UniProtKB/TrEMBL annotation:
<comment type="similarity">
    <text>Belongs to the short-chain dehydrogenases/reductases (SDR) family.</text>
</comment>
<dbReference type="Pfam" id="PF00106">
    <property type="entry name" value="adh_short"/>
</dbReference>
<dbReference type="InterPro" id="IPR002347">
    <property type="entry name" value="SDR_fam"/>
</dbReference>
<dbReference type="InterPro" id="IPR036291">
    <property type="entry name" value="NAD(P)-bd_dom_sf"/>
</dbReference>
<dbReference type="InterPro" id="IPR020904">
    <property type="entry name" value="Sc_DH/Rdtase_CS"/>
</dbReference>
<protein>
    <submittedName>
        <fullName>SDR family oxidoreductase</fullName>
    </submittedName>
</protein>
<keyword id="KW-0560">Oxidoreductase</keyword>
<dbReference type="InterPro" id="IPR057326">
    <property type="entry name" value="KR_dom"/>
</dbReference>
<feature type="domain" description="Ketoreductase">
    <location>
        <begin position="10"/>
        <end position="198"/>
    </location>
</feature>
Length: 243
């Protein structure tokens, strides 16, 4: 398939310090798209920025805590004022929590919902005015297979991802008239550092998982599709199935 000659002016990538976010940043930068790297860890973001600069790309670092919801809109406006237009948003940042709903604390519930769902909503709100003005933009929400299928002990994660799926679908319907495309990408298990976090107390065979680079390649393909085409909903699974 041939691609548009128009290259996005910039891409905002959340969770860009590692895993899928890092892989997406490297892939888009190699395609000539400047990237705004967002995550909490400044040193990790600088490491990704250095990798991109070594490849001849442009990357700017924005250490932002996406879970600080009251401060987030202003932080994002400052980012856009500094970085410039973002024709691509990849809502990738997220966390998982494994445990039964019956004993889940309200604070843990809210922490997952804030990051996985509400932060994505606020990031989309930040970039939409510019995308509407230019009548050009692509928003990729990295949902998860857990946004389509429920799993025991993953209740709050599933709730946040089902919510993100609903948000993505509604946003797609609202924004298509403005020339903005919205994709819900639902990967199965991906070999990323999320499996090393203290809120995920399960162990799977990570050699059978998808790689972050495979997911990044797919996101880059979606971003560079001709403007008359959109992938609205896509599920990518490892051949081993649900792990």
């Amino acid at each position: 398939m041939s691609f548009d000659a128009k290259i996005p002016q910039g891409a905002l990538i959340t969770g860009a310090s590692r895993g899928i976010g890092r892989a997406v940043a490297l892939t888009l930068a190699q395609q000539g798209i400047p990237v705004a790297l967002v995550a909490r860890s400044h040193p990790d973001l600088v490491a990704v920025q250095t990798e991109i600069k070594d490849l001849g790309g442009r990357a700017e670092v924005y250490p932002i805590d996406l879970s600080d919801l009251p401060a987030l809109p202003q932080r994002l406006q400052s980012l856009l004022a500094d970085f410039g237009p973002c024709d691509v948003l990849v809502n990738n940042a997220g966390m998982a929590y494994v445990g039964p709903l019956a004993t889940l604390s309200l604070s843990d519930w809210q922490r997952v919902i804030d990051l996985n769902l509400t932060a994505a909503f606020l990031c989309a709100q930040a970039v939409l005015p510019g995308m509407r003005q230019r009548r050009f933009g692509t928003i990729v929400n990295v949902v998860s297979i857990a946004g389509k299928r429920a799993f025991p002990d993953w209740g709050v994660y599933c709730a946040s991802k089902f919510g993100l799926m609903g948000f993505s679908q509604a946003l797609a319907e609202e924004e298509r008239q403005h020339g903005i495309r919205v994709t819900s990408l639902c990967p199965g298990s991906v070999d990323t550092p999320i499996w090393d976090t203290d809120t995920v107390a399960v162990r799977f065979d990570r050699s059978k998982m998808l790689s972050a680079e495979w997911v990044a390649d797919l996101i880059a393909y979606i971003v560079r599709l001709p403007s008359g085409a959109v992938v609205e909903d896509l599920t990518l699974m490892p051949t081993a199935g649900i792990l």
